[in-house]
Amino acid sequence: MKDALLKVREYKEIMTPTEKEIADYILDNASLICNLTIREFAENTYSSPSSIVRFCKKLGFEGFNSFQKSLLYDIASHNEKEANNTTLSLKANEDISSIINKVSRGNIRIIEESKKLIDEDTIAHCASLLSSARKILLFATGSSCSVAKDFYMKLLRLDMPVIFDEDYHIQLTRAKNSTEEDLAIIFSYSGQSREIIDCMDILKKNTATTIALTRYTPSPVSKAAD
Question: Which of left, alpha, beta for 191 (phi over 0: left; psi -120 to 50: alpha)?
Fold first, then answer.
């Protein structure tokens, strides 16, 4: 079952102004929407039924009805307020125990939501690529370097042929020296880092296989990756 609320939150940053208004209405009135017709929903958001259908399809649903079914499942499986991330917000002068509980619950929720987005066949294919690569090249800039470095250490412990250097110019040189036998793993949360995209362009020209670890929404990095 596709997680409707999760997809609305993930896609919100790349939505048009009209789509953002629809998204905000959904996040604020999730339970109400399950009982609306598409025309009533359109009237409440000052849009049109066709705009609602396009919105639902952009999120990966067949139409408004399938979106409603997924939304109903969301509400039944967890509290709507928590799904909207309001009950986990930290407040000034909040006691330590409450902060610990909210942060822990937030981390658990993130893991559960990530699990819903994982495709098992993709994971299995990536594992196969890792085991057969001549070299595993890691690419990251900025804060994504900390994630890449952690992955680098894990692969080192497994005695795998992994290479990572935080210097962008060295990464660029690695990309230029890559071959079709190499596997490149790209770390970029935004999926829009110019340096990373430049490296990917070179990797693609050299026919190296690429895997992107990025956010769920479409981006230049996710589109370019194998």
Answer: left
Q: What are the contacts of 170-174 at 24+ separation with CB within 8 A? A: 171/139, 171/195, 171/199, 172/198, 172/199, 172/202, 174/137, 174/139
Q: Distance between CA 9 and CA 89 in Å, rounded?
A: 16
**Tens of pLDDT along 14-33?**
888 889 999 999 988 888 88
This prediction has a pTM of 0.70
Provide the residue type at 169 as one letter.
Answer: H
Helix (H, G, I), strand (E, B) or coil at 163: strand
Residue pLDDT, tens place only, 137-187 = 999 999 999 999 999 999 999 999 999 999 999 999 999 999 999 999 999
Contact 192, 221 (CB under 8 A): yes
